[in-house]
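Notes to self, Thioredoxin domain-containing protein:
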Amino acid sequence: MHHLHGSVHGKCSLFRHFCKPRQLVIRQLGRDETAEIALERRLRESQRVDERVRFVSNLADWEREKREAGRNLLVLEVQGETVCHSGLMEEAEYHWKLDVQAAAEEARMRCAEIKHTFQRIARDCADATFLSHTVADTPTPCSSALCDHLGVEILPTLQFWKEGVKLWEHRGALHMRDDLAEGVLFYEGSAADGVHMGSYVTELDSRAEFNNFVSGSGSNDNVLKVVNIALTSAAPCIHVYPAVLALARNFNGYASFARVMGDSNEELENLLKEYHVLEVPTFLFFRNGKEVGRHVGSSRADLIGQILQIQQSLGMEPPPGSSIGGRPRVQRQRASWR
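result:
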């Protein structure tokens, strides 16, 4: 969980190969493809990746891309030509892998997987700008100046920017693939298979929208209203968000979900103070406009358990498959108001 400081300011298809007389057929997502058709499709996808990922080599490129991105999310990957750090402290990394050659090979494979994930997400997420910069083993002066400007000290580094402001970054290859997908979902709202957050989680940008959500009546007043309180740069809020989306999709008719980005404007800053939100993520539970409980932290199991407990007190049966998994991460971050 995130303690607030200062101002409250998706799957690679599985291919099954089998031989038929004179031709190889690939079965993908319920379709049959000849090898030739599959090759043409992959070439088209590669072309889309080339069009979606743009490469920056110096500060002038970077400043131009920032301007052209406008209000869109900008995702920047800075990778090494052959270097790939885990992101662990040097001593911890030494004990983590004593076999230097094995560590180097694993790092190389890990960074190759990150590059593939970056390209796939860039291909599928049309509303964000994706940039890449590769640092040579002997960096050029332009590359060094760009990395210094960006504050890049670990390769690879992943950064999320919007309107010229760095929102968040991940340093090192460890968990980077997960954080890339989570960051794009959290900031842009795009998930795998064309799923968009806005179809399931309501974004609340003002006090009026908050009041309408928690007090508004629907076809079933027993539906629990869940408000996810988050901050822009709080890693626990980013890490838990896939679970929030999954719950919103699976709990349709059982619980309704919305999100408040508490540092997006002064009105929402005051809302968080009014509800005594000191740590994020915080989940506020409402029924008929009244708060009936809350959950603090990013534990998926505890969040699900609390929602089920509140609803079962009304005799409401839980929906099928109401267990949302996920990797354990930092659960909370504390707040102090300026």
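- The two ends are 19 Å apart (CA to CA).
- The longest strand covers residues 73-80.
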